[in-house]
Amino acid sequence: MISLYLGAIEAGGTKFVCAVGGENGEVYERVTFATKNPSETMEEVVQFFKSHKLKAIGIGSFGPVDLDRTSPTYGYITSTPKLNWSNFPFVEEIKKHFNVPIGFDTDVNAAALGELLWGAAKGETGCIYMTVGTGIGVGAVIEGELLHGLSHPEMGHILIRRHPDDPFAGSCPFHQDCLEGLASGPAIEKRWGKKGAELADRPEVWELEAFYLAQAVANYILILSPRKVILGGGVMKQPQLLPLVRQKVVHLLNGYVQHEAILHRIDEYIVSPGLGDNAGICGALALAKRAMEQ
Amino acid sequence: MISLYLGAIEAGGTKFVCAVGGENGEVYERVTFATKNPSETMEEVVQFFKSHKLKAIGIGSFGPVDLDRTSPTYGYITSTPKLNWSNFPFVEEIKKHFNVPIGFDTDVNAAALGELLWGAAKGETGCIYMTVGTGIGVGAVIEGELLHGLSHPEMGHILIRRHPDDPFAGSCPFHQDCLEGLASGPAIEKRWGKKGAELADRPEVWELEAFYLAQAVANYILILSPRKVILGGGVMKQPQLLPLVRQKVVHLLNGYVQHEAILHRIDEYIVSPGLGDNAGICGALALAKRAMEQ
Questions:
Q1: In CATH terms, are B5-106 and B120-272 the same topology?
Q2: Alpha helix (H) ranges present in B119-162?
Q3: CATH match for A5-106 among 3.40.50.300, 3.30.420.40, 3.40.50.150, 3.40.640.10
Q4: Whole-number Å distance between alpha carbons of A291 and A56
Q5: What would the CATH number be for the domain defined by B120-272?
Q6: Which residues of B touch A224 (CB under 8 A)?
Q7: Would you say residue B83 has pLDDT above 80?
Q8: What is the annotated signal peptide range for this record (chains A, B) (predicted)?
């Protein structure tokens, strides 16, 4: 039995990762299981954690979620199309079993915080973390604080310019050809008829993908002025993609943002996650750490 | 002689406004003069303020500016194309004459803070303020703090989708057909051959303008999740424009951001400046107030 560590939940629409870890982002033990309905899933979560004495628990959740602490539905997953999870009181359910401080945020905000504390943005006061996979999501830390507002950002759904030679209609049920609709993993598969991993040798696939992602990153830079841009998720595992995105971002900004990070050090400014595939679960640990300190 | 008030400088590329005012945003006295070279302009600024005993001075400046307090060029206007003003140490110059706390930020961040304290976003913890005029600029306050980062945001230059029937090439010297290149006052004049004010009776002009502005506002909402969106500047004086922008933003978001401010109260969410044409100068007063309190 490990005692007095931090608990972390990376709650995804298809899988849950639970871990216990330490205050420097170390993961001591972890389990991964498929996301089922809330009661079955919570039983597995509680089962994993109950053998540990925890100081705090952090939850990085798929969304949309209610992050407004003054709201009666704070800590809920709200209107998700995953029907059983709609209006699920996530924080309340965890509190029933564990009487410790609980940190709760979106999965991507969690990952951004994890990368800031222990990953590619260590030493900075802020960063954005973008995941390009089944969906596209972006989390942000600005001057040490997680970005919230009216609700939480939904940066994966911004409008970008279509490539004139791209016949694919887009796959977002809300916006059709928004960023996620054109550049997520499923969009790549629908457009080209194969998964991204099977298209590694087709340069046109990654040129087009970078064309879309670079527009989004350029807009994030112009709007948020992030101190570091971190690109993760399954689609970014294609090693040819990141250099293409960097090159196109520099081209799009065209010298307008006169900062040496962009003009001279783009390879250190737009980077891969320092925590690799652990960005999400370490992010949840980071939320636990913050909850404990507050 | 007015004693112990706040000084405010709204420093624009074509005109300067200086004012003395109070801690509730009241403007007691103001002057406006054309922007000349820095030494002539500073002489006029000093002349205006020297008959007043001031507690603090706030400067909302055209940019780009250096807002990094750890930088040797903090408080400078940096690489502006207005040649005489490039590398101008604005805060230093003011400090030579007035030994008081000095607040310094971009003109649009100042206006956003002014609107938050005393205008359309009063009672909120954040807002964005967009001005559509000679250029397009956007300032933001997030959870009480002015938005900075690597440098300051440059939201007026984001990429948006061109309308397929718009033959105008765009007027931005850096990005050609970015938002500012397609939707600023000069872009309207170049496209249609007349100033916006003379095109009031041409519905197609405002449909197209709203098509561009709504895309930008939708992206700002998805990226920043602002608590209030304030649209000011000369172009927004066309009363038909704001309702069109609201309608198109709602259409573009298509129910995705499930917050009642967007779903049911868009008229109260996307609004005109509460301070009208005083947003800029009141914003500079707000910067002075913050500088005094810090």
A1: yes
A2: none
A3: 3.30.420.40
A4: 7
A5: 3.30.420.40
A6: 147, 149, 153, 223-224
A7: no
A8: none
- Residues of B numbered 77-136 whose beta carbons fall under 8 angstroms of chain A's beta carbons: which are they? 78-79, 126
pLDDT in tens, B116-138: 999 999 999 999 999 999 999 99
Say if CB B18 and CB B30 are below 8 A apart.
yes
Question: Which residue reads 């971009």 in tokens?
Answer: B106
> Would you kindly state where each structural domain of chain A is located, as residue ranges?
5-106, 120-272
- CA–CA separation, B106 vs B58, rounded Å? 11
Q: Would you say the ipTM is above 0.90? A: yes
Q: Find where tokens 């250099």 sit.
A: A243
Strands (E), chain B: 3-11, 15-21, 27-34, 53-61, 76-77, 88-89, 102-106, 127-132, 136-142, 145-146, 229-232, 270-271
Chain A contact present for B251, CB below 8 A:
no
Contact predicate B76/B65, CB 8 Å: yes
| B14: Cα separation from own chain's centroid | 14
| pLDDT at residue A185 is higher than 90 | yes
Whether B220 and chain A come into contact, CB under 8 Å, resolves to yes
pLDDT band at B7 (very low <50, low <70, confident <90, very high): very high
Q: Which of A147, A150, A249 would best serve as a mutation to test chain B binding (most B beta carbons within 10 A)?
A: A150
Q: Do A157 and B222 touch (CB under 8 A)?
A: yes
Instruction: For residue range A39-81, list pLDDT tens digits in order.
Output: 999 999 999 999 999 999 999 999 899 999 999 999 999 988 7
Collect all residues of chain A within an 8 Å Cβ-Cβ radius of residue B86: none
Please give the pLDDT value at position A79: 84
Measured CA to CA, the distance from residue A22 to residue A18 in angstroms comes to: 14
Report the chain B residue with the minimal C-alpha distance to residue A125. Answer: B149
Q: Return d(Cα A9, Cα A31) in angstroms, integer.
A: 10
Q: Residue A251's closest chain B neighbor by CA?
A: B175
Q: Which residues pair with A128 in a beta bridge?
A: A140, A229
B219 vs A220: CB contact, 8 Å cut-off?
no
Collect all residues of chain B within an 8 Å Cβ-Cβ radius of residue A123: none
Say if residue B3's pLDDT is above 60: no
Q: What is the dihedral of CA A120, A121, A127, A130, to 10 degrees?
A: 10
- Find the closest chain A residue to B212 by CA distance: A159
- How much is the mean pLDDT over chain A? 95
- The strand ranges marked E within B120-186 are 127-132, 136-142, 145-146
